[in-house]
Specification:
By secondary structure, the protein is of the alpha/beta class. Helix content is 44%, strand content 14%. The protein has a single domain, classed as Aldolase class I (TIM Barrel). The chain contains 14 helices and 8 strands. The longest helix is centred in the N-terminal third of the chain and has 19 residues. The structure holds 5'-deoxyadenosine and iron/sulfur cluster (SF4). The site of 5'-deoxyadenosine has 12 residues, from loops.
Length: 334
């Protein structure tokens, strides 16, 4: 059992100690997932957001200067077709937190299910919503939801997001109660964040009984109140990924695109630290430019990049572990 004290110590791993931490994480990944890496296709459905996170260029206060968009259900279906053509069966709909996404996504979900003949995971990342809205989307066929707690240090959470950590946790609990596969996650290296609170983040995901967890390095994005702060450490982020793998070995853990913003081969290093999910971007070129997460220097993940790092890491592209095959009722009735 990894105690909190041990986690804090290991978040600082370097050199040989770090190599053996990563090796153990890869061993655990192999035990649960063999060499398979789950590949998702993301569509960024809106860059509007009512929240004002100090680290994010899509924050509410930037709305007037950003060129804003909300995709229509039709545009979502068209992008989903491209995802299907690449042999990917996870359609990941991500966007800022605005009430309008409920309707757009509700219209799209049944059509995406039909497009994939039922064998698809619909993964949402649309922020806090009421339990009734989560239920509505779940009843329509949404399978999974990512709602990162960002930091479990309630004081820091409020300081940087201007929202209560308790409310965020309530949303996560609602999602779990409704039967979603749920992912949470932490930003590593936020100003004023302690290693102790990152250790708490790692333990919290296990305590809550989630299915996915992530660690992303803090990027000091331009045009935000934190633009002059120091970037989060890639090493600490990689150590957090490996420790997540040890604490919650059967969770899906992504190697996120933010790892590529501040260093070379960042996502490959994430895989080497025990991650097992990659996400390819299927937003149109114009929308990618307007979706300002991490600012204009964000790294857009293409299928060629994913193929290259999977081959370097000796891993294989695989489909959703959550999508269920449609029962073959028609055949039985023949
Ligand atoms: N640095 C790191 N992660 C960020 N996010 C947003 N802005 C930043 C940043 N500057 C992450 C948040 C959010 C996800 C969509 O992007 O964790 O949940
Ligand atoms: Fe909105 Fe998410 Fe950006 Fe916060 S991180 S401002 S919730 S898009």
């Amino acid at each position: 059992m990894l105690t909190k004290k041990k986690l804090i110590e290991m978040l600082n791993s370097q050199g040989i100690e770090q190599l053996s931490l990563f090796e153990e994480a890869r061993k655990q990944r192999y035990l649960h997932f063999k060499n398979n890496v789950v590949v998702r296709g993301v569509i960024e459905i809106t860059n509007l957001c009512r929240v004002n996170c100090d680290y994010c260029p899509m924050r509410k206060d930037n709305t007037k200067r950003n060129s804003i968009y909300i995709l229509s259900s039709e545009e979502i279906i068209n992008a989903s077709r491209h995802i299907k053509d690449f042999g990917i069966n996870i359609v990941f709909l991500q966007g800022g937190e605005i009430p309008q996404t409920t309707k757009v996504v509700a219209d799209a979900i049944p059509r995406i299910k039909e497009l994939f003949n039922g064998y698809v995971e619909i993964l949402l990342c649309l922020g806090d919503k009421s339990k009734a809205e989560y239920k509505y989307l779940r009843d329509l066929g949404a399978d999974s939801y990512i709602l990162k707690h960002e930091t479990s240090d309630a004081r820091l959470h409020y300081k940087l997001r201007h929202k209560s950590f308790k409310d965020r946790l309530r949303c996560i609990e609602n999602l779990l109660e409704l039967g979603y596969k749920v992912g949470t996650g932490t930003i590593v290296g936020l100003p004023d964040q302690s290693l102790e609170s990152i250790a708490d983040d790692i333990l919290l995901a296990k305590e809550l009984g989630m299915h996915m967890v992530s660690a992303s390095p803090f990027i000091s994005a331009p045009e935000t109140p934190l633009e002059n702060c120091t970037y989060g450490s890639i090493n600490t982020t990689l150590n957090a990924i490996a420790l997540m793998r040890l604490v919650t070995p059967d969770y899906l853990i992504p190697s996120v695109s933010a790892l590529e913003v501040s260093g070379k081969d960042g996502q490959l290093k994430g895989l080497e630290a025990g991650a097992n999910v990659l996400t390819i971007n299927f937003s149109s070129a114009a929308r990618q430019h307007d979706y300002l997460i991490y600012g204009t220097n964000r790294f857009i993940v293409k299928n060629t990049h994913v193929a290259a790092i999977l081959s370097k890491a000796g891993l294989l592209q695989s489909q959703s572990t959550f999508a269920k095959r449609k029962p073959l009722i028609d055949q039985q009735n023949c």
